[in-house]
Amino acid sequence: MVKKIYFLLCMIFFAAMLFGCGYTTGSLLPADQRSIYVDNFKNGIDVGKENTEYSKYALYRPGLENDVTLAVVDRFTFDGNLKIANRDNADIVLTGTLSDYRKEALRYDNADNVEEYRVKITVDMELIRPRDNKVLWHEKAFTGESTYNTTGRFATSEQLARDEAVEDLARRVVERTVEGW
Q: What is the pTM of this model?
C-alpha cells in the first residue's frame, strides 16, 4: 500500500515537472526581432502649460531625455534578449517623447511640511518594425516612478529619486518590449 502511494506521488510530481504551468522567463519576441535601435528620446514637456491648481506649471529637468535614453539602452543591454544595433541594421526601432515630469507631495508632518515626495517620469513611445514601417505597439503616458523622504534617517535627494524613476521607467520599457505586457 505504501509503495502504491509513493509511486502515485512520484508520478504526480513527474507529470507536474513535465507539463508545468507554462510560465517562462524567456522572451516572447518573434524570431525575426533580435535587434533594436533606441532612438534618442525627445523632450515634449511644455513648461509654460498650466496644469492643475496644485501644480501650476510642469517641471523640467535639463537633459532628462538623455538620461532616459541611456538608461533604456543600458537596460536592453543588461536584459540581453535584444541586441543594440544601429538604425539601418535593427529589426525594431523604439522611439519616445518625454511628456511629463511630476513631483507630488505624499506625506506631511504636523506643521504641513512635506516629508515625502513621489517623482514620476512619463513618456509616450512606439515600437516600429522598419522593414515595413509597421507600428508594433504604441504607449501613451508610460510611467516610471520613485519616492523619497525629505526628513529623517531615510532622507534622500530629489536627484536620487529622479535617477531611480529613470531606472524604473527603463525597466518597464524593456519589459513592455520583450515580454509584451
A: 0.80
- pLDDT tens, residue by residue, 33-42: 999 999 999 9
Hey, what's the cell of 61?
A: 529637468
In angstroms, the CA 63 to CA 58 distance is 15
For 36, phi then psi, to 5°, come to -140, 145
Distance separating alpha carbons of residues 162 and 168, to the nearest angstrom: 10
For 148-179, the pLDDT digits (tens) are 999 989 899 999 999 999 999 999 999 999 98
**96 CB burial (10 A radius; 0-12, 13-18, 19+):** buried
Question: How far lies 168's CA from each of 17, 37, 63, 142, 144, in Å?
Answer: 34, 20, 17, 11, 5
